[in-house]
Amino acid sequence: MSKISLSRRSGSVLAAALAVISFGVAPAAGGAERDGVPNAARADGPPRADGPARADGPPQAEFHIVSPGPGASLSGYVGPESMDPLHGYVPRGYSPRDFHRRVIRHAGIIRGIREDGKLVRAYCFDLEHPTRGHMPYRYGTWGEARTRNLGYIARTIHDYYPNTAEPAGMSERAKAAAVQAAIWFFSNRYVLDQDHPLFPTTSRIVSRVIKEGPLEEPASPSLRVSGPEHVRANSLAGPYSVEGTSDKASVDVTGGEMYRDAAGTQPIRSGAPLERGASFYLRSAHPGKVRVRIRARVVHHIGQAAVYVREAGYPGMPREGQKIILAREDCVDVVIEKLVVIEEELPPPPPVEHHPSLEVHKWVHPGTYGHAGQRLHFKIKVTNTGDVALNNVRVEDHMRGLSEVRCPRTTLAAGESMVCSATYRVTRRDLRHHSVKNCAAAEGRAFEEGTHVRSGWDCAQAYGHVPVTG
């Protein structure tokens, strides 16, 4: 089964975008509120974007961090391990005695860029590791992120900036910073100084999110095609099916033809769109490979996690990076391929040789007679001993004085039998000869070939006797 693989553009697109955007990142001075990519591992400024823009990241990277978005500086504390964020935000007047001081120069939206030049917007939910310009990321799952309260974090992003106008009456920078502060409260127990201007807003966000409850993890986008991987030339193969989270996908076929039906009577043009779950069939006249290329647009939903992809051998990149979560949907055009191996056409099967055959077994009842006019009942069992059905089956019996031979039918399947019957009246001549002998054979024709078949003869004999008188 084929899986999603991003179609890569030229590295120059990414390099140019990185060069333009990331060079705008600069350290803030004197603790003033200034946009900068958040670096929770240090409190002396946002990360630097030193070095050339990267366009040669790991193959599994789906976007790179390039610049900060709206946000502001935060000052506050990380609460002790015993703190449970689901019990609510700390009240004003809380004592920071068991808390750890943490000043963050930028809290808010993080911008990434995909290789097609499209921006990705995310929040951070990890205060333990750094993020800096050019760091590569890929989409992952909540299980990979291994962070508490992700359902509440997803609810926060879903209900607040940048997906709604909430919290109302604030600048974009203040909204982004308040939402980020609420996220860090759920993930790392981060609380603002009680005199910080965003303290009441962050507290209200947390209270409302706890009341509304967590969201479930959004479904990861997928695109796949299923079906046979090895088929014979000139044979119609399938069904193949396009599955995933996209409603439609276009299918290109190179080296073969595509059909809607198993009979191959409804062709599909290459590149035609197919609905999700639709089936199709393939045929190729020559051995080789058929390339099936599926194109579709999939959506990474709000709340999907992304994890850092470490670039081995590239100096300056940390061993671990912040975990981030999508702040807005990210629509991605993806391409997958499936190679179907076309093997040599099977030679035609040898013609089937049928062997029609009939067998007859005859008997008479009673086996003796004593006077003229006595009835003798002859039975003829006819059996199809061949391997093909027969029709026009009949019994041949030329005995003078015998009634017509009656059979229940004129067809016999292979291995099937039937019993035919005829009656004979004893004559004076039979009394003088002391016996009556009768022989019969059967014949028929094979259904398919029309071959004539005939059995051998089989005989039955009744014997005369002189009545005993007193």
TrEMBL record:
Q: Name one GO biological process term.
A: carbohydrate metabolic process
Q: What residues does the DUF7507 domain cover? A: 356-453
Q: Which residues form the Thioester domain?
A: 121-194
Region annotation Disordered: where it falls in the sequence: 30-66
Q: What are the entry keywords?
A: Signal
Query: Signal peptide location in the record?
Result: 1-28
UniProt-listed InterPro entries: DUF7507, Ig-like_fold, Thioester_dom
Record flagged with keyword Signal: yes
Q: What is this protein called?
A: Uncharacterized protein
State the organism of origin.
Answer: Actinomadura logoneensis
